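User: Could you check the structure of this?
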Amino acid sequence: MSFDHEVSIACKVLPLLNNSFRESIIFSPTSILAGFSLLYIGANDETEKEIGDFVGKEKSNTKESVIERWSKILKQESNDESSKVKVSFGNGIFISSNISLLAEFEEIMKSKLNGNIESLDFTNIDSVLNKINSFVSKSTNNEINEATKNDEISSDNYCICVNTLHFIAPWDSKFEKLEMKMFFGTPSREVQMMKKTVIPRIGWNLSEGKNWVCLGIPFDGFKAWLYIVLPNQHYSLIKLIENINVHSFEEFTKKYDSHTPLKR
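Assistant: Sure, the predicted structure tokens are below.
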């Protein structure tokens, strides 16, 4: 499973958000892929095949290769203390005290995938809620404190799988000043925005298509990028999202000469 699989997951999820385009939504294809990979590792028979098809598992991949891939990612991120670009994953499985996991799966979770496994009384919803939200809060450096609510948990649940992804990094070129600007979202409102005079050789990446424009802003040392994609004037954002595919991501992130001045 590769970056292409993560992009493919994003393209599969975006159409499912049709009814939510009037809201601000953040989702992580990487986190979704990681969560489904956990299910795939623990599944068999038809369930294994269906999950494998969804996450785009190549026929040449075995469960062992999927395990090793995620294990390698987790070790790389936890060992790179010198980098200012920090990425951390959290894997949590919360199971009913009425059931148990296979010992082999538990061992893989703990030794390979940095997994947290807890047995809970699902009839005590407040306790389950507290355990899950505490895990998410700790895994995201206290950035997400209410990941789930009471009405999203049922006493009929037997297992809840949680994956977290936390990212933090300084910009390669800092935004020292903020100013209040109108943000035309839903609803429109004034918010603090970054104030920056775009200068030649700053290293940003601007790409344009027939109906869209994309600006790539690098984090420290150009080790990671934030890409902002917006429709051109008179083109619908909803229509742009509906037409996004794997090729779109290739166009959005295509690198251009960093010494070329950006349009203001």
